[in-house]
Amino acid sequence: MSSESHPPTGAPPTPASSNGRNSGDAAQKPRRARTSKPKVKTGCNNCKQRRIKCDEKRPACANCIRSKKTCSGYPPPARSARPFEEIRIAPKPIVAVSAPPPGREPIQLPPRRVQKMQQRRITPPMTPSPPPVAVLTLHRPTTLPFDSQEGLYFQLFQEQTANELSGFFDSTFWARSVLQECHSEASIRHAVVALGALYKTLEKSTESPPGSPTGERDASDSAWGHWEMAVKQYSRACQELMLASPDSSSHRTRLMASVLLACFDSFIGDHKQAIVQIQTGLGLLEQLRTERRRAFLPKPEEPVEAELIQMFTRLAIQAKSYDMAFHFPQPFVVRLTQPTAPQDPSSPTSDSGSSPVSLYQDPIPEHFSSLLEARFKWDALAERIFRFTETMFNQTQSGVMGILPTSIRQHGARFKMEMEAWSDAFEHILASRTAPGVSSQEKACIAVLKMYQIMSYILFLMTFSDSEMGFDKYTADFNVIVDLALEVVGDEERRAAIKRCPDPRFCHHRGRHDSEAGFGSLNYAARHIKPSFSADLGIVPPLFVVATKCRDRATRHKAIQLLKSSPRREGMWDSELTARIAMWIADIEEAGDNELSLDDMFPTAGRSPSESAGSPGSTTSSNLRFNGSIDFGDAALGPGGNARYSRRESQTSGLFGVRAQPKRAVIPEDRRVMVRAVEFDLRERFAIVQLGSRGLPTGTPDLKTRVTRITW
């Protein structure tokens, strides 16, 4: 019997037995495809392209030396490389302000279209009922006539820019309607690519200078390259609109293009052209509404879909709020009503200048069923308030900037009641923002909407007052605005810090004066939050009102600090511009006052309850200027994350049942000023601000007049 062992029948062949049989097939076996790995985040450009580990030696890494390659350099370091540098929103590269890079010709925009004759009657867009929930459809750039570079910008718009433009509130206009229109309208496609390139410009403009070694860099991936593409696409969008046929099918496209181009102009800081775009869209919308009214339809409907009407509603509200704050001259004033001859102020007016949809307004419910319903109701109410005040100013011709006669205050009582009814219906939503399961975005939406309601309530009631002293009764409400803004900024900073610096020990964003507790010093900056732009409402306007109208020093300076903490542009509202105007007003009104102490800013911060009550053994910190470092206390900011603020006494007062603050020195009437005019250019970073007295008729000599030029 042989001693050889044989494998059992049916068993797989052993490697030894299969070598001879498969040796001839080995050469014919296809090579295994290389597994795709994630893109290398660090290292030189050569190693990143080869997807290998780089030792990051300088001026050349070991891999490049070993392979006898020229090390092409390292990508620009993150913003953390310059933690103490102030970051500004600058979509247009600084180099583009003076001259283009060598070898490039300056880019000239096509001539502005000659504006058509202003319509005799301009009616604002009406707020429709909430649209039905739509299923989001993704549109791939492969189906659109884009080259490779344009396709990347379109994808960036789809994945990031649309969400950023929506702000705190979700919008089907940006996420669905605009993307769908790109398939059929060239002007919309070019405008979308322009906005995507502009966001890429912002991203590159806020990067640090590249590190060593210096080498050839991809010019198309520079801030100037993205800006160049943005301007070219903007120009092509304007050209497509000029070539479009003036038929009824193009009206919707023109309205949508007006929104996109207004956002582009606001983004780059050209607020005047943004207002022109809004005026053009409102004029076309009124023209279409007039045609429908002349058709004697039994129930005329809006000429375009509800979400596009809603966008114009919000743009009109935004433009009016901007004009009320900075008092623009003609023709950069958006009108919501038809100009009429002066009438007796004691006679109430009707909504005769409104569109058919505005003739009936659904009453405010006892409780809002959703945040979306509350937002739609607020947009409708805010628009009608602006239309009412504009009509009153046209008819009374009082000649006093921003002030209506007290004799007609009774005619605005219905708006006061409606705002209070809205606040009551919103109360359960406001309280629910701290409930488990509520997303960070929804918390921010709730906070921002409440901030706007409080701000509008105060400003509307003060429209009938000719004294700046009247704002003092709303100090508690100003504190609510600041607290809600702290929640928003604190939550943004917390999420950004977790995403960008998971290990706080290796975080290089925080400045040397920043506290580890987050919002812990008076010169605090939310350094993890990137500069942002959105087309919707946010925290800047309410904080500007607090910073300029609240004379409680602690509250005012916290509002200014929040404006400076993170650079953001919300429509035409710029945080840097508003912060600097507010700082100048505060310097004028508080000149000669004592230094701002820890007790002034936070009466109970960092002390026991007995010490907070003023016990004989209480201790206080030394007085510090506003730009010093002061701990905000140990109380966490509710749902806001790592931002912190002081504990306040539980005493309640004010219109909204908020906590009252200890009494402090009152700024006298003769030292209080208001903004009379602002002429500014966000692209050149300067503003000429004029201050003066409240309640003086136009043309009356004003001893409080102050004019200054602010640059940044």
For this entry, give a set of tags.
42% helix; nucleus; mainly alpha; DNA binding; globular; 712 residues; single chain; Fun_TF; 3-stranded antiparallel sheet; Zn2Cys6_DnaBD; zinc; 20 helices
Short structural summary:
The protein is built from 20 helices and eight strands. The chain has 712 residues and is mostly helical.
Write a structural description:
The protein is mostly helical. It has helices at residues 15-26, 45-50, 62-66, 94-98, 148-166, 172-181, 186-205, 223-243, 251-267, 271-294, 306-326, 371-396, 413-431, 440-462, 475-500, 540-549, 553-565, 575-589, 598-601, 609-612, and strands at residues 532-534, 568-570, 573-574, 652-653, 658-659, 674-681, 686-692, 706-711. The strands form three sheets. It has a three-stranded mixed sheet. The chain has a three-stranded antiparallel sheet with strand order 6-7-8, covered by helices on one side. β4 and β5 (658-659) form a beta hairpin. α5 packs across α7 and α17 packs antiparallel against α18. The termini are far apart. 41% of the residues are buried.
